[in-house]
Amino acid sequence: MNNWLASDLDYTMKFASREGLPAPSFAQLKYSVVRRSMAEGPFYGAHFETGRLALQASDVFEGGVLLGKTPSRKIGADPGGIRSAIKDAAWAVATVASSFGVSPSQLAIAFCLAYAPVANVLFGVSRLQQLEDNLGAVRLAASHGAEVRAALDGLWLDRAVAADGSL
Question: pTM of the prediction?
Answer without folding.
Answer: 0.94
